[in-house]
């Protein structure tokens, strides 16, 4: 299963935010895991103690 174009763009935006490129006052987060959940079609991102799901529409939720 492949991510949608919207998911790929959402993943890019999320990774950009997490790696401290936009908000210098935020603490840098290592991105440890990116995986697609084949049951739901959501992308799962683990970054330190935070986790996110990126829906097929491209929206992310902590």
TrEMBL record:
Domain DUF6888, first and last residues per copy: 3-58
Protein name: DUF6888 domain-containing protein
């Amino acid at each position: 299963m492949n991510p949608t174009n919207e998911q790929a763009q959402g993943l890019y935006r999320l990774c950009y935010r997490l790696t401290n490129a936009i908000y210098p006052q935020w603490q840098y987060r290592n991105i440890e895991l990116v995986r697609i959940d084949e049951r739901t079609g959501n992308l799962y991102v683990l970054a330190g103690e935070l986790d996110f799901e990126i829906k097929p529409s491209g929206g992310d939720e902590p």
